[in-house]
């Protein structure tokens, strides 16, 4: 019995050793993988390839992929390889739609010999809405709206495309009839570019150009079967392919190609300027670099240390005004401001001629026949800075002057002392003080008679706070001035001890915001 066991053991060891020796002896590599095909889906890419050959047998395949193509020796793919096993097809999932991925495959055998080279690369970019057989839903028309007398905006339930046979003449994919079944000719059809639609509407909006519509006429739009989703599902005839809209007489607007124009500059104080543009503007991430100020006589520059974007309260136009913080201006000097690199919402940049203006450090209009900051000629005895004749003008409601705010701390009590010079007219019947913690939203603080020229603010003040105050004048009819402004930071040291004097500007809502460039 022992002899038999010895023989069996020896035989088993010999067999194992033979297999081991055989595995160690296998140095033959599988052939390179060929015909790798990549097909994009929604957040995935499906890969397939031809079978590789080996002198023993192919055990499986390793998939390599990354965001950059690999074609030089020593380069590697950016993501971890995937051992997909002995298959000839595999889905790489959890990919980012709209991003192009590059793929290659190598085979390996039982001895872990791999193909000498990567396969030829295959590339694909996943896209929302793709998915082949899994997407069985057909698109539907959600809405149609005439946005001008020759333009109709059509919204679909999912991103769409036009069938190949009408791609060059997409207008053939739509029909429009009025209530009398008279056709309204569609001249062109275009899927709106992603940057021209709101987020989430990419691929959903089609802009049709039609012959001129009849105002208030009722039209019915029909999308034909040449409209399909990204998986190739055609729109289905019936109620889901139609929408009604009313004819318009609005003139079509051309795209904005003109840059913004600086229309107004006022001196708030010797360290702050107020600018107004004719349209909404966009500042860069370093807006102070977009404004330069130079003394026209000496060439000396005033440094711009900050820029706050806000609304123009005279017109209500959002993000059309800027408060510039600058180093101290000489009230006797004439300065030139140059605005560069400022853009409107359509990325049109301001032109040099439209962003250059001269002003006095004192805030007075530029004289000697020059134009003032409002663009009106300022000639003695003719027009004033508002462009009106200055002949025995009736008394007008004017703001106070020299409005100041000063922080005072006595023991633990904090207070702000406000003072001002009363306006030199008899029109004012009431003075009103407003208070703000952000320079944007003001609440009424108190009212004064027309003889009061000072006030103390106390109560819930805390060190470190910054407060804004606005003082207005009202007449008997209730007309109220835009007001003068003062700002103070409740700090024992530094420039916040005394508030800044601000002229009557009606600054409205000014708040910092993130800028794009």
A few lines on this structure:
The protein is mainly beta and 517 residues long.
Architecture overview:
- By secondary structure, the chain is mostly beta strands.
- It has 4 domains: 37-124, Sandwich (Immunoglobulin-like); 141-246, Sandwich (Immunoglobulin-like); 262-360, Immunoglobulin-like; 401-502, Immunoglobulins (Immunoglobulin-like), CATH 2.60.40.10.
- Helix content is 5%, strand content 38%.
- It has 1 helix and 34 strands.
- A hairpin with a 2-residue loop joins strand 17 and strand 18.
- The protein is extended, with a radius of gyration of 38 Å.
- The N and C termini lie far apart (90 Å).
């Amino acid at each position: 019995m022992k002899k038999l066991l010895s023989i069996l053991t020896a035989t088993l060891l010999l067999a194992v050793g033979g297999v081991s020796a055989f595995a160690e002896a296998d140095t033959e590599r599988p052939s390179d993988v060929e015909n790798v095909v990549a097909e994009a889906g929604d957040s995935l890419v499906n890969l397939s390839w031809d079978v590789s050959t080996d002198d023993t047998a192919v055990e499986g395949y390793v998939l390599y992929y990354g965001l950059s193509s690999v074609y030089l020796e020593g380069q590697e793919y950016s993501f971890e390889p995937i051992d997909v096993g002995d298959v000839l097809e595999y889905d790489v999932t959890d990919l980012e739609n709209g991003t192009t991925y590059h793929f290659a495959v190598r085979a390996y055998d039982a001895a872990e010999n791999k193909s000498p080279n990567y396969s030829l690369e295959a590339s694909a970019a996943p896209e929302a809405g793709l998915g082949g057989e899994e997407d069985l839903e057909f698109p539907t028309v959600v809405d149609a709206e005439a946005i001008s007398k020759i333009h109709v905006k059509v919204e679909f339930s999912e991103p769409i495309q036009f069938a190949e046979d009408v791609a060059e003449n997409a207008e053939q994919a739509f029909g429009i009839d009025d209530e009398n079944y008279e056709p309204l000719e569609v001249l062109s059809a275009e899927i709106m570019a992603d940057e021209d639609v709101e987020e989430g509407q990419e691929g959903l909006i089609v802009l049709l150009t039609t012959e001129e519509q009849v105002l208030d006429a009722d039209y019915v739009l029909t999308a034909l079967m040449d409209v399909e989703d990204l998986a190739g599902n055609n729109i289905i005839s019936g109620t889901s392919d139609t929408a009604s809209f009313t004819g318009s007489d609005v003139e079509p607007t051309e795209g904005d190609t003109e840059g913004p124009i600086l229309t107004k500059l006022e001196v708030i104080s010797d360290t702050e300027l107020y600018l107004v543009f004719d349209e909404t503007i966009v500042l860069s991430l370093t807006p102070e670099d977009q404004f330069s100020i130079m003394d026209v006589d000496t060439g000396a520059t005033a440094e711009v240390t900050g820029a706050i974007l806000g609304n123009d309260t005279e017109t209500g136009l959002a993000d059309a005004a800027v408060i510039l913080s600058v180093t101290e201006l000489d009230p006797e000097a004439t300065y030139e401001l140059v605005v560069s690199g400022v853009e409107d919402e359509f990325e049109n940049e301001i032109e040099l001629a439209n962003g250059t203006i001269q002003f006095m450090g004192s805030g007075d209009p530029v004289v000697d026949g020059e134009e003032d900051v409002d663009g009106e000629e300022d000639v003695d005895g003719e027009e004033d800075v508002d462009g009106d004749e200055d002949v025995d003008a009736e008394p007008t409601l004017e703001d106070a002057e020299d409005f100041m705010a000063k922080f005072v701390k006595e023991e633990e009590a904090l207070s702000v002392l406000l003072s001002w010079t009363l306006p030199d007219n008899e029109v004012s019947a009431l003075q009103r003080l407003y208070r703000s913690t952000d320079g944007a939203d003001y609440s009424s603080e108190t009212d004064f008679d027309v003889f009061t020229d000072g006030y103390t603010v106390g109560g819930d003040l805390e060190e470190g706070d910054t407060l804004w105050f606005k003082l207005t004048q009202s007449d008997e009819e209730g007309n109220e001035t835009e007001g003068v402004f003062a700002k103070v930071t409740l700090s024992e040291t530094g420039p916040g001890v005394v508030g800044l004097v601000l002229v009557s500007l009606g600054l409205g809502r000014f708040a910092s915001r993130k800028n794009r460039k």
